[in-house]
Amino acid sequence: MAWSQGQDNHSFLSGGLMTLREPQIRPDSEGNVSAQTEAVFRNYMYQSYENDLNREDAQDIPVVNELLHLSDPPSPEADIGRQLARFGDSINAKYADVFDSMISNLNLDSDNSENAYEDFAQIARRVLTTKINWGTILILLNFGYRIALTVLRSKTSQFLSFLSRIVSYICRFILSERIAKWIADHGGWRAALSYIPLMSSKPFWLVTALQAAAVIGIIFSHRL
């Protein structure tokens, strides 16, 4: 069956049926990815928090005006962060208990910032036991958000001071663990928007489900 190329990220079968095709990848610079990561993650947290507040069981989540206003003005980075949070919402809801069990192993009260980061990085590396892809990056962002939410619930008075810490942890981890390089090689953060229409396809959700299953396996093996 012959294919003809349409505009944007669509292809058309000879019978006129439209389907999605893989977007073309134009590599970005690692420096640019690193510079954008903070805004992407901030907006991921903002959108995830808004999603959680809209759930029926949101009574145990304190309302923090600063977090509600964490969203940046409209920008590509802000849009990417919010879009990723919308697609990560099902992971956040379905595997919240799994993430929270992992977070219970963190010493969130440590006064030694370097030790606290290493505790975070050790568990984050276990989350990313398989190869890097947009699914694992989504899980990493959600892991960071769940840490922030844990502090918000249990140590509300310390939340604002902790917020900048978890943002710095995620940014540092993405850069030091070569995740920023992978993102740059695969089109930069902007490429995430191109892949969003494809994320509802079976291959993406299969990858995401496998990543989530790997996280669950890590939790159970850690408890043994």
From TrEMBL:
Signal peptide: none annotated. The keyword Endoplasmic reticulum does not apply. Belongs to the Bcl-2 family. This is Bcl-2 homologous antagonist/killer-like. The keyword Membrane applies. The gene is LOC106057504. InterPro entries: Bcl-2-like_sf, Bcl-2_BH1-3, Bcl-2_fam, Bcl2-like. Keywords: Apoptosis, Membrane, Transmembrane, Transmembrane helix. SMART domains: BCL. Residues 84-189 form the Bcl-2 Bcl-2 homology region 1-3 domain. GO terms for molecular function: BH domain binding; porin activity. One of its GO terms (biological process) is release of cytochrome c from mitochondria. The chain crosses the membrane at residues 132-152, 204-222. GO terms for cellular component: mitochondrial outer membrane.
